[in-house]
Amino acid sequence: MHEVSICENLVTTVLKELAQGGKGAWRLKKTRLVVGLLHQIVPESLTFAYEVLTKDTPAKGSVLEIRLVPIVARCRVCGWKGEIHDSLFVCGACSGGDLETIAGKELFVESLEVEEHDG
Ligand SMILES: [Zn+2]
For 60-70, how does the pLDDT look when each residue is reduced to its tens digit (9 = 90+)? Predict the structure, then answer.
């Protein structure tokens, strides 16, 4: 499953970030992930994989929040720019296929929400 390999990388990144935060008293509450639609992920599968992969780690119990970024492309022929809504990559103006993708390839952790323990 595509989502599991994406999630393995994600959890590795998150745990590395957490480790760099020192060994203070904290708990990870939320991971905010930005994913471009080009990755064609199923958010539910990613969330499920995240829960499984963080189960025995310091990130246990945290929530994965996914922000999906629409695919935006620009036509190299006529200069049209707009959102692509299906897998058919054609220009919305001239129907040409020579498009440059300007958004939708994103895949990164936007931020981590950490909570300090009492005591
Ligand atoms: Zn065009």
Answer: 999 999 999 99
Question: Is the pLDDT higher at 19 or at 45?
Answer: 45
For the chain, domains (ranges, CATH) are: 2-18+26-116 (3.30.2320.80)
Q: Are 49 and 4 in contact (CB under 8 A)?
A: yes
Going by C-alpha positions, the residue among 110, 109, 114, 108 that lies closest to residue 21 is 114
Of the candidates 91, 52, 93, the residue with the CA atom closest to the CA atom of residue 73: 91
pLDDT tops 60 at residue 119:
no
- Residue 36 CA, ligand 1 centroid: distance in Å: 22
Instruction: Say how many Å lie between the CA of residue 101 and the centre of ligand 1.
Output: 13
Q: Report the separation in Å between the CA atom of 104 and the middle of ligand 1, taken as the mean of its atom positions.
A: 19
Kindly tell me if the per-residue pLDDT of 39 is higher than 60. Answer: yes
Q: How far is the CA of 35 from the centre of ligand 1 (A)?
A: 26
Q: 97 C-alpha to center of ligand 1: Å?
A: 8
